[in-house]
Design a protein that fits this description.
This protein is of the alpha/beta class and 297 residues long. The protein has helices spanning 13-24, 67-79, 92-108, 123-134, 150-157, 191-200, 217-223, 251-265, 289-296; strands at 4-9, 28-34, 48-49, 60-63, 84-86, 112-114, 138-145, 162-171, 177-185, 208-213, 224-233, 242-250, 272-274.
């Protein structure tokens, strides 16, 4: 299997997540990253340059710049006949106008692009459309939020020695409820005493509780997100079907994985700009598509 050589524009949180994802996979290699603002991280196993023209042998470019810069950067890359993946957070008419502009550029320069290939739009867009396909007459609600339990967070913050806390809940594979409590401690607090006090609190007695001291709860809140997506059949439907998706994730890391999947599809696409809804799902696995279809089809 030939490795796909990918470059990254922008090396902020999203760019670094993309770089790590590329380096972790066997079918991709990181050709380099473009950024003028930071020193290369020690773990970056690729050149860090000031302009995309300094890199060669690129199969596709992942655009990881702020939303207001995405269109200009992507158009410049398409003009160089480079394939592009981006995940600008645009919705509705704004997204359609953005996609149309990049589609014109991609057609003119005979290149392909996948747009809005992140978490939302992107992965959630695919789930929303599949839910609507399964229940065509109904309504969908979705909410994005920090994946925290407010009541349990406040209980942990009331413990002596805790400056700030974040309590998350999940269900283990065996069905056991677990609570992960991240605590930012006062300088002289005893972590063992704090952990014992939290576990003894009445609101924590109904689930397994794990306590983790961290340097910054605020930094943790930036990455941990929750999403609740529901689709309910219309009242007139005889069978009141309902679909529910509940997830807790690092939104940035998940967006990077979706961008990497979109890059795998690019060699199979004709010139133009595509959203994830335009791309056959099997292509998101690249050359592994037939094996995946055999395994899960």
């Amino acid at each position: 299997m030939k490795k796909q050589s990918l470059a990254i524009i922008g090396l902020g949180r999203l760019g670094q997540s993309c770089a790590r994802a590329i380096q972790e996979e066997e079918d991709t290699t990181l050709a380099g990253a473009v950024s003028r603002r930071i020193e290369p991280p020690a773990w970056l196993d690729a050149p860090l340059v000031g302009h995309i023209s300094e890199l060669a042998g690129i199969d596709a470019v992942l655009v990881c710049v702020p939303p207001d810069a995405v269109c200009g950067v992507a158009q410049d890359l398409l003009q160089r006949r480079l394939r592009v993946v981006e995940c600008a957070r645009l919705h509705g008419e704004d997204f359609l106008r953005h996609k149309a502009a990049l589609h014109r550029a991609a057609l003119h320069h005979a290149a392909a692009a996948v747009v809005g290939a992140g978490f939302d739009p992107g992965l959630l867009s695919m789930f929303r459309s599949q839910f609507a396909m399964a229940i065509p007459h109904g309504h969908t609600t979705s909410s994005l939020h920090t994946a925290a339990g407010l009541h349990h967070t406040l209980a942990a913050e009331a413990v002596k020695g805790v400056r700030k806390a974040l309590a998350l809940e999940q269900t283990a594979r065996d069905g056991t409820r677990q609570r992960y409590v991240y605590v930012e401690l006062d300088p002289h607090a005893d972590p063992a005493q704090v952990e014992s006090a939290i576990r003894r609190d009445p609101c924590y007695l109904d689930a397994q509780t794990l306590v983790f001291p961290v340097d910054s709860v605020a930094a943790l809140e930036e990455t941990n997100r929750g999403v609740l997506l529901e689709r309910h059949a219309a009242a007139r439907e005889r069978r009141h079907a309902a679909l529910l998706l509940e997830a807790r994730c690092d939104e940035t890391a998940l967006a990077a994985r979706v961008m990497l999947a979109a890059a795998r599809a690019l060699p199979f696409l004709k010139a133009g700009a595509y959203s994830l809804l335009d791309v056959p799902p099997v292509l998101l696995w690249g050359e592994r598509g037939p094996a995946i279809e055999s395994e899960w089809g």
